[in-house]
Protein: TetR family transcriptional regulator
Organism: Scopulibacillus darangshiensis
Amino acid sequence: MSTRNRPKFKLIVDAAVDVIAENGFHKARISKIAKRAGVADGTIYIYFKNKEDLLITLFQEKMGQFIEKIEQEIAGKQEVKEKFLTMVQMHFKQLAADHHLAIVTQLELRQSDTEIRLKINDILRDYLKLIDGILEEGKEKGVFRAGIDSRLARQMIFGTIDETVTNWVMNEHKYDLVALSEPVADLLINGLT
């Protein structure tokens, strides 16, 4: 059985999300994470080299699940605009459903050192490829303007979605993030068509 499929691995990752969200990355202690996961401190080092490795792995695991859920939802859609809206909705739904994960992804990962940020960017590539796929399909089908710079469009799309979530986190989840899916998607789609 792979390390990632072991129950303790998942318990530790989930506990790390909670502890980092509640305390901040720099104040989150391995001992707190271990206690929340119900494991001995040393058990964490069986799975992770250090707290930074845990943060990167946490993001890798959660982002992998995040992308997988978006891809599953998009797979059932035929229209490019519907795929685009679904991507935005799923992004917002998943983070709205897990406030601690939203805090970690929107705030704690951004305060990390350069090495961690580079590894986080590598992990984000799969999500950016998902956006690229929708963009390219839209251009091929004539839904989006053919002359759009895909790289710039991808940055604008991801940046808008990401900043919307960050603003929601900074405002302590005081409004319905998911309700913003259609207005955000509409704004972005209108810029592409």
